[in-house]
Amino acid sequence: MSLLLLAGCCTSRWADLGAASVSRGVDSVITFSGLVYYPATAPGVPADNGEGSGNYFWSRFSAHSSEGGTLLTALALARTELVAREGHSGGWHRYVIRGASTGAHDALPFGPTVTRPFAGFHELTPVSVASSPAPAASRPVEESTGLTEVATAEGVVYRVRPDGSVLDAVGTPSTAGPVRLSAEGARLAARRFAEAQVPGFGSGADDGWLLTADEPAGHLDGDALRLLCWRPLWSGVPGAREVSVEIDLRSGAVVYFADVRGTAAEAAAGPGGFPVSAAQATVAARRLAGDLTAPATAEADIWHTGRWTVTLDRGNWGGGGDDRRRPGPRQDQHQHRDQDRSKDEYQGTGAGPELRFPRIERIEVDAHTGAVLSRTST
Fold first, then answer.
1. Among 193, 203, 168, 209, which Cα is nearest to 84's?
2. Where is the composition biased (Basic and acidic residues) (predicted)?
3. Which tens digit of pLDDT belongs to each residue from 326-367?
4. H-type helices in 158-230, by residue range?
5. For labelling, which of 49, 51, 60, 344 has a CA lying 20 to 30 Å from the CA of 85?
């Protein structure tokens, strides 16, 4: 199989290049529909270290695809493992696969079975069980080790932890037919599935959970999905767990599920807040970036430790100038930082030679020590 990777911001907009590649014999092209951030570092790794989130994502994708997984499955499993490692996907969850010219489901990556609705994994019929490939010893991630991978007759692949709980699952969405679910219908389906799979899950702040993503998604030409993500609230801050569900808007089927945990304990939140304030974290981030003027926000969460993510908005790349946007209303400090602007904002001004997308820099600061944990940019 020949495969072309266009691993960068908004590369799904390069439709002509993708189509030309396929017409010249490339079986599949992987692109991204929004911003991706690189290089990123794991907690404890210096901010100038070259091992980025993209490198880790592709190394895990390669491990799963070399074990015989389809492109769609390998990308989804790598996505889960990146969240486990860094506490966010850095935009790499917005992969879009274009198949051979004969149609997406006729191409090599996908397989024939479109996932139908199911209420729980007990309803699925296992056809093979194997150990899921673990990360290299130099990149240990507890959530990614000791997993059992189960392939089912219904076209769903899911992974089980040693304690019997399900880490993640991926199915194949439909690519044709009428869309039957509204956004609200998808939210309801996602909540019901999460409540059935995750002990103690609640879908709102009153239940101790925060909805951090509710947005359109898509991974194949013609599919229609909606992504919803929740984090538990620990002392008012998003805690070290993320539950994600993607719903096929045609059938209502779950085509991606993940229940990912960081390593920090709930006590990391602390009853009195973090020792390092948002203002102090912002000062540290500006000093590192050498930028004292760009609009900035600081958002708190907990994953491997308590941290502030400081986002500096430097306007747009392209367009012949800085084109720096004015800062908008201040967001809640605990808003999940991986909830990027909608894909529609990156569609630009229409056909033209210039490609414009935001120049964003994100710097993670340890909320207990003030140390810089990572530095990422578009």
1. 168
2. 321-346, 356-367
3. 443 333 444 433 334 433 333 333 334 445 667 888 999 999
4. 183-197
5. 344
Chain segment 305-331, per-residue pLDDT in tens: 999 999 999 877 654 444 444 443 333
Q: What's the rounded Cα separation, in Å, for the pair 219 and 226?
A: 11
Residue 51 CA to residue 59 CA, distance in Å, equals 11
What gap in Å lies between CA 255 and CA 247, rounded to an integer? 6
According to DSSP, the residues that pair with 168 across neighbouring strands are 159, 258
Measured CA to CA, the distance from residue 41 to residue 364 in angstroms comes to: 10
Say whether 323 sits in a helix, a strand or coil.
coil
Which residues contact residue 253 at a Cβ distance below 8 angstroms, ignoring those fewer than 6 apart?
115, 116, 117, 118, 171, 173, 247
Report the distance separating Cα 59 and Cα 52, nearest Å: 11
Q: Which amino acid, residue 353?
A: P
Residue-wise pLDDT for 60-95, tens only, equals 888 898 888 889 999 999 999 999 998 998 888 999
Nearest 10 degrees: Cα torsion 38, 44, 48, 50? -60
Rounded CA gap, 159 and 219, in Å?
Answer: 20
Cut 0.90: pTM above it: no
Using CA atoms, how far apart are residues 348 and 76, in angstroms rounded to an integer?
28
